[in-house]
Amino acid sequence: MSLGNFKIYNALQSTCSQRVRYTLHHKKIDFSMEILDLFSGDQLKPEYLAINPNGVVPALDHDGKIIIDSSVIIEYLEDIDVNLSPLRPKDPENCANMRAMIRYFDEVAGPSVRIPSYNMAFLPHFQSMTEEEFIALAESKPLRKEFLLKMGRTGFTEKDMNESTSKIKATADRMNKWIEVSGGPYLLGREVTYADICIMPVIVRMDDLGMPELWSHHKNVCEWYENIKSSDIYKKTYCKGSLLSEVYPHLSKN
After folding, report:
1. Which of 3, 100, 124, 184 has the most neighbouring CB atoms within 10 Å?
2. How far apart are CA 137 and CA 127, in angstroms?
3. CATH value of 6-79 in 3.40.30.10, 2.60.200.30, 3.30.1330.40, 3.90.600.10
């Protein structure tokens, strides 16, 4: 039975887009991609804002039905066929635990990873703008205006950077405990779930930025990460151009 036609609007380096690509590959769902150039402002063009008024990626078009927000999209892909390579535990308690983990990741680790990403990779792009151009860009962002204005063209402060990396380290501490409790090798036990998929891009990003010391003292997290990276699904998700170090040469030394 065909599940229909799937198209994702995404950016290769977008951590939220990576969640959705991993889920689609895991479920062996055929899909097409429209890759948006975020620095050119593709996500702010009227035709994309008509799809996702938040002006961020990803967005999923499933036979004309538009689904936005990566955490929502990945569970939508489960709901359309719960037996298709399931990623959500059947046990209600485990499912609740999974959603609590995702809520934590989305409130703590997800926002925190943006600060080192912008400071270490994207800042030169903003520094090349005039102040007027930068303000105009920030004002055009439906969800990221305050974030960009706080960063400015000089970048986030050392205090901001320390706070963000501290939160990601705290996330790794929790992951290590969760794996210990579940028996691993994944967060909820023997099988990959949406909890693993939601934190995966954050760990990949911080590793790409040269900060594996945030979790390298945790054996469980290190083994979890190696298991994640060893799969063919990971390799398909992180196709060429998905890592910042592949796009920004100044990061290759990390």
Report:
1. 184
2. 12
3. 3.40.30.10
